[in-house]
Write a structure and sequence with these properties.
Shape: elongated
Helix content: 25-40%
Number of helices: 5
Largest sheet: 4 strands, antiparallel
Strand content: 25-35%
Structural class: alpha+beta
Radius of gyration: 24 Å
Strand order of the largest sheet: 5-6-4-7
Number of strands: 9
Distance between the termini: 25 Å
């Protein structure tokens, strides 16, 4: 296994945190701690994240009159979302579940249509969960569209959730001070929060 180290000096969203790192090279931890020390002087990191949405995709081929089929799917969107939720009851109990869907006609002449269902997976990695939703909804969608059921997958081409943590290093001596510099008071032992190591929750 890899040795466990702790990176220091991190301030995230106005909280002091210790960051566990499992890496072979100690200089990586030292470099991260040093960078965090410099960023800390201008207020630290400010993190934000979109809701944790992943996409379940159902593709249908040879759909007769694909445009009208797409309209039927949209008209039944609430029933489809409820059916998707029924396939992942434990996630719904934890506050997640199917949030929205859209329908696209990729090739009207060939009758190629895809349905994307956006699933809030909470803290779970979510791939198995959205696959479950896609499998559960394939028959429901097919009943509305006709044609042949194709892919039932979690596509990698679209990311519906992003996270960012912008930060500004301090200005050189003599430059105009950053207005964020006053947001970095000295840490006291009682105010330090230990960030948990990353884990993957089963879906």
């Amino acid at each position: 296994g890899l040795p466990l180290s702790v990176a220091l000096n991190f301030r995230v969203n106005e909280r002091d945190v210790l960051v566990p790192m499992a890496v072979e090279e100690p200089s990586i931890v030292a470099a991260a701690s040093n960078a965090a020390r410099m960023v800390r002087l201008s207020g630290g990191f400010f993190g934000d994240a979109d809701p944790p949405l992943m996409t379940a995709q159902v593709q249908l081929d040879e759909v007769p009159d694909a445009e009208r089929a797409a309209e039927r799917v949209r008209a039944h969107s609430q029933a489809l979302l409820a059916a998707g939720d029924a396939s992942i009851p434990r996630m719904v109990e934890r506050g997640g579940g199917c949030r929205d869907l859209d329908v696209r006609v990729l090739d009207a002449a060939a009758g190629v249509l895809v349905v994307h269902v956006y699933v809030d997976v909470g803290d779970a990695m979510g791939a198995n969960m959205v696959d479950t939703v896609a499998e559960a909804l394939a028959g429901e969608v097919h009943a509305l569209t006709g044609g042949q059921v194709g892919l039932r997958i979690s596509p990698t081409s679209r990311c519906a959730a992003c996270a960012c943590a912008p930060a500004s290093p301090p200005r050189p001596s003599g430059a105009t001070p950053s207005p964020m510099a006053s947001l970095a008071p000295a840490a006291s032992p009682s105010s330090i929060h230990v960030a948990p190591p990353p884990t993957t929750r089963g879906s």
